[in-house]
Amino acid sequence: MVGGTDRGAIRSGLWLPLFDELADPVVVAGLAAEAEEAGWHGVFVWDHLRWRAPVRQVADPWITLAAIAAATERVRLGPMVTALARRRPAKVARETATLDWLSGGRLVLGVGLGNDHSGNELSKTGEELDDRRRAAMLDESLDILAAAWSGETVHHHGEHYTVADIQFLPRPVQGPGVPVWVGAFPGSVRPLHRAARHDGFIPVNLDHPDQLAEMVAVIAELREDTTAPYDVAVGLPLGTDPMPYAEAGATWWMPDLAPDTLSLDRVRGVVRDGPAPAP
Q: E strands along the chain, which residues?
């Protein structure tokens, strides 16, 4: 079993672009509190510096997540996903441990390569554009985070980053560290290998549950410990039945809210509709 729950069971998480009407962390924290009251299991946020028009306003995900953590008690929370190669891993180590403490051990770190397609946020800020180099930076950053979360002194001298003789305390509440979910496209082998080394994965651009079942099967073969809990979080358009995806191995369902038609009223309607019913 790849997932952390039985096949057919699925948890529900909001997946919020922090744009325009949702660029106010106070508003998003209120939505998160409403979602928790309505029975949702998680509140996750996009991580972007900018987005294409007509989006104009964008909130910082980490400050918003801190507001969510302070306004809730039970829901899981985290960025889905952060392009780790454009963040300094030592800074992320501090941020994640602090946020895990603030939330009482509820943080999930979603990571991926990121791209320059939707807002040119990499090219406009001088970030690395080569996918292979960003992949190497992502893997190196994940190694640094694992070392930092251990509480031991970190000695890292890599191709992209140096962390010399620093101990990152306090450790996260969760042990051995914050759960890491890795973004992966159908047909992309290397991200699946990366995902199998961590705690979950987020399949991107799924068209059919059969695609998910194939990815889940590959990860099951690659994982060293198939008894440990493992999460599979799928973003699905509103109106899509999540149950076939649960049967294919998904443990989380997140409604995919299009930024171009995003509104506070629409999100409130999704929250009040409630999570996916138990099978």
A: 11-16, 42-45, 76-79, 82-83, 109-112, 153-157, 162-167, 180-184, 200-203, 231-237, 252-256
Two structure tokens written together for 162? 């140096």
Q: Tell me what the pLDDT averaged over the chain comes to.
A: 91
CA dihedral (65, 69, 71, 72) in degrees, to 10, reads 130
Structure tokens at 172: 């996260």
β-pair partners for 239: none
What number of helices (H) and strands (E) belong to the chain? 8, 11
**Best CA proximity match to 269, nearest among 253, 250, 255, 252:** 255
Residue with tokens 């506070």: 264
Q: Is the pTM of this model over 0.90?
A: yes
CB 176 within 8 A of CB 156: no
Structure confidence by residue, pLDDT tens digits, 48-89: 998 998 999 999 999 999 999 999 999 999 999 999 999 999
